[in-house]
Amino acid sequence: MGDVSTPFEILRRLIAFDTVSARSNKAMIEFIADYLEKHGISCNVAPNEDGTKADMIATIGPMVEGGIVLSGHTDVVPVEGQDWHSEPFNMVERDGLLYGRGTCDMKGFIAVVMSLVPEMIKLNLQRPLHLVFSYDEEVGCLGAPALIARMIRDVPMPQAAIIGEPTSMKLVNAHKGVTIFETVVTGCPAHSSQTQSGVNAITVAAECIVFLKSKAKEFQTEGSLDQRLQPPYNTVNVGMIEGGTALNIIAGECKFNWDCRSIAGQDAGQVSEKLERYCLEELLPPLKEIDPNVEIITREVAAVPPLTPSDDNPAEALVRQLTGQNQAGAVSFAAEAGMFQDAGVPSVICGPGSVAQAHQPNEFVEITQIDACTEFVRKIANWAADKIDR
């Protein structure tokens, strides 16, 4: 059986893997699988379509229904353009804080779960604990659908899922959904001195973005609000844009990526439909008189459903029982919890660190948060071993 490691030792190793979503996470998955297999735990590892990434499912305890999913994502956001005071992929401890990309979001939770595997094995679990680790969460939860579908197919139905996103170890039973779109404008290139003969794709894209901004402002005053969320309304954000080939050429193409984050019960697709109607009825007709090949095409890249509160949520009941928390919060970021819920697995979010540090330069997690998470997961394991009253 493998050596027992502390969550801090394991976290240091996990941070050293540069698992930015644009790169491979396979080395990290192989490290986790090797660690578990040394402890006698078999791992169900599956690659993505092109073999560059992988996810995994590992079960500790009997293969029976009613287990608990402990879920985390292995990818992290980029560090380029951020002012880091230390090497992002080399964890540094200062003043009770652990710095490094992914310490907070969310390798800290994975490290805690891994560190407790030896204890879980010794407890003779009566209900299984399913370790479920995904890829590409940070770019729209792209890896979760196949992973969750495989879990539902291969694992006896769990009764609850706990997703360890950073909530400062507070119980969260609701999050916004997010739908990610890409809009591509095909214009008509020409010499920049001949603006009457061309269609500038960048300018057209800008008009689309102004339209989306107007829809975002409408959300602030129209539709239902959820005051537990900040902000309490749907939001629209354009996060990336690229276009043009040279300063003296009228841009022939421009594309931008945007998202709509929606509260439960509201359809983000309506914004895309309104944009399409605006393009067809107002923007395109005069442009097609210059060149009939001018196009504006918007496609959905990814969609994550919201996590919706329920009066009868076993995951929420379990966290309340083990932590003594009497209230549940809501977060504005999207997570894989909503996807587990959609698949029929009641879910909540509860993990170490604050979202205020997530995605930021000098990302950190407090050592006290790792300690609190360790005690929390230890209680889950004892509950699964019938050592805590159900």
Structure description:
The chain folds into 2 domains: 7-175 and 306-384, Aminopeptidase; 177-304, Alpha-Beta Plaits. It has helices at residues 7-15, 26-38, 103-115, 117-122, 144-154, 201-219, 269-290, 314-323, 337-342, 367-384; strands spanning 43-47, 54-60, 68-73, 92-94, 97-99, 129-134, 160-163, 172-175, 177-186, 235-243, 253-262, 295-304, 329-331, 347-349, 364-366. Helix content is 33%, strand content 22%. It is elongated and about 75 Å long. It has 10 helices and 15 strands. Helix 1 crosses helix 3 (103-115), helix 3 crosses helix 10 (367-384) and helix 6 (201-219) packs antiparallel against helix 7. The strands form 4 sheets. The protein has a 6-stranded mixed beta sheet with strand order 1-2-6-3-7-14, sandwiched between helices. It is an alpha/beta fold. Strand 4 and strand 5 form a beta hairpin.
Short description:
This protein is of the alpha/beta class and 390 residues long.
Give the second-level CATH assignment, the architecture of the largest domain: 3-Layer(aba) Sandwich
Question: What fold name stands as the CATH topology of the largest domain?
Answer: Aminopeptidase
- Average of the residue pLDDT scores: 95
Question: Which CATH first-tier class of the largest domain would you pick?
Answer: Alpha Beta
- Integer tally of domains: 2
Helix and strand content put the structural class at alpha/beta
Order of helices and strands: HHEEEEEHHEHEEEHEEHEHEHEEH
Question: What distance lies between the first and last C-alpha atoms, to the nearest angstrom?
Answer: 31 Å
Biggest sheet, in brief? 6 strands, mixed
Task: Report the principal-axis shape.
Answer: elongated
Report the β-strand fraction as a percent range.
15-25%
The H-level CATH homologous superfamily of the largest domain, spelled out, is Zn peptidases
Q: What is the radius of gyration computed over CA atoms, rounded to a whole number of angstroms?
A: 23 Å
Number of helices: 10
Question: What kind of assembly state do the chains in view correspond to?
Answer: single chain
